[in-house]
Amino acid sequence: MERVDCVVVGAGVIGLAIAREMALQGRETILLERESAFGTISSARNSEVIHAGIYYPKDSLKAKLCVEGNRLLYEYCRSHQVATRPYGKLIVASDETQMNDLQAIFYKAQNNGVPEIKMISEREAKTLEPNLKCFAAILSSSTGIVDSHGFMLSLLGGFEDAGGMVAYQSPLIGARPIGQNARNGFELEIGGPDGMQLQTKFLINCAGMSAPAIAQKIEDLNPDQIPKAYFAKGNYFSLSGKSPFTHLIYPIPEPGGLGVHLTLDMGGQAKFGPDVEWLEIDEEDQIDYTVNPKRGDGFYEAVRRYWPGLKDNALQPDYSGVRAKIVPPNTPAGDFCFNSPQDHGLQGLYNLYGFESPGLTSSLAIANHLEGLIKSSL
User: What is the pLDDT of residues 339-363, one digit of tens each?
Assistant: First the structure.
């Protein structure tokens, strides 16, 4: 039976970043992906925003890895010719009643070490964006957009150049520890057209929304260590014609997400979203990505708080994505969770849970952090 140093499950942006890092560290690495291509699920259904690290609690993994990931991502894209657009972002208080919330966001950003951020007045905001309605705003100049497909393609190239191999249409069927507490690694059962068995020293589960389901396939893993998956769908609506804004525009955040915001794509086209639609499903395969046009009614109301000039019938249903949550509705947002051997006792096993936004921005920092966890356990 073939044996490798490392198997990574899930070829989204985080899986690609981790697999590349494992290969660059000299480990013989295989990346398993159940789909026929990389980055086709959550990594292909998001806003492509390079976040600054503004919203997250001080000392949380999201805060630390987003701030570091923002810097690493811009550096990587510059050196690897991946397109970015540093549009900048305005977080707006629509009226005076939201000023306390806006101030709290600003102080949180300062505590997180977010660079290039300042509070600006209504006059300053309207100088930047004449169509904007606001009482005051936060300007985040390090927020931007990345060509996420180009970024993932570059990560894949780096992984393969370092000797890594991707196996598409290769779902993980099961994993069995070899020896007590997996001291000799894992034996994997891999499905698909070219199903096979494989042994590995390190098993890294970064399958996004499916990470809890993948973890349930690992023998001897304590079920108490596996969180329940929750699915929060985010719908997007596009705006035809020229964008009225040159910055990304964000309202004060709402429970479960960052509010219906305006983002720009690489070509400067505007779209709005995502909203938060909790799905009453148990697994990823039950997701319906169709955007219900009726949800647009809520978009008009939300957007007009900061852009009163939005005309009726200007928005069209576009696409949707689903956030990989491990906390239920009406609870504070969860942090990134690295479930490692010191948590569950199985050597060489790392399960990554709840890696929703800012996962894209943080991906390179996530890979570095995981490498640090591995080295500290050796």
Answer: 999 999 999 999 999 999 999 999 9
Asked whether residue 224 carries a pLDDT value surpassing 90, the answer given is yes
| CA distances from residue 57 to 63, 139, 336 in whole angstroms, order as listed | 7, 19, 12
Tokens matching residue 157: 């190239």
Asked whether 222 and 24 are in contact (CB, 8 A), the reply is no
Measured CA to CA in angstroms, residue 347 lies from 3, 213, 266, 369 at distances of: 16, 20, 43, 17
**Residues 262-276 pLDDT 10s:** 999 999 999 999 999
Radius of gyration of the chain (CA): 21
Domain 85-144+229-325: give its CATH architecture.
Answer: 2-Layer Sandwich (3.30)
Work out whether the CA dihedral 152, 363, 104, 232 comes out positive or negative: positive
pLDDT value of residue 332: 87
89-93 vs 248-250, strand pairing mode: parallel
On whether the CB atoms of residues 233 and 287 are closer than 8 A, the answer is yes
Say what the pLDDT of residue 255 is: 64
Q: Where are the domains of the chain?
A: 3-45+149-228+334-377, 85-144+229-325
CATH class of 3-45+149-228+334-377: alpha beta
